[in-house]
Here is the input.
Amino acid sequence: MKLLLIFTLATMAGLAADPPGRTAGVKSGQRIVMIGDSITKGHGFGNYDDPSPLNRLYDIATLLLQDNVPHPPPVVRVTCGWQGFDKEGKVIGTVDSLAAQMKYCIERGELHQGDCLIYEDAGQVDIFIHPAPMRDDHDIYGRYRLALREMILAAGSVITREHFVLMTMFDYGPRCKWCRWETPLDDGVHTGNDIFRDTAKELGVPLIEMKKAMDAANDHLVSKGWGRVVGPDLIHPNIYGNYVMVLATLYTLGYDIRNWKLDGLARHFRHKESGGDVATVWGFDKDPSDGEREELLTRLRSIVLETIH
Here is the structure.
């Protein structure tokens, strides 16, 4: 379920900023905080319950940082203000805007002064909460731009703009119309990814070109006959997609991942009979050997480095 999205209309204003890029880096004592929907929650095995760290972005990031950084920052996921319905059909923990989500987390003590925040949204981009989920495909570009702007400003009491990180999103032909991030929205001009690119440029916040990294990784996997970076739903990343997303994020945050050790993470990618976590890779057509699985980790890292600047 999407986080939230309802906003009041207002004139969008802001100072022009230089094009977004990599951040100034994660400082000592900072945390990396992830906020988003099902991808951030963790769906790398095609479910939310698999205990393997490969199922979740923040657990993969934690493993890599612990093995390669002297004082690794905590990597956590914050609570979504929108939590659905209870058994009686009543709304649970509703928030009514992206700005309200920020205030919700700050008031709960889940966002700390100086945190580095990563925002992910995989759609549907037409779903809004008023207070329950309803679809609204009127002026999606303008309304979402405004919502993001208000979200970033609401977080300003604890998070500087250089540490509020947006990302573009990828997809590979899902049935859901509004989960296609390079398809024109209701105005026939802008795409969902334009929302993030244009907001990042307007407000001077960093942007991860996640679509570019994931597309390059996906092209490699398809060319080798392994499969895709996503599962059969063509939206949610599998364990290799999760890995690519984490590398792209950490590199954008200023970490030099080029020579990072991958051994601690690689053992989780092995077959279960070899002491790993993965019987088969969700979204793959062929099953790589343990050695081939490890080789993919190295090759995909090179692809991220080649595509993220």
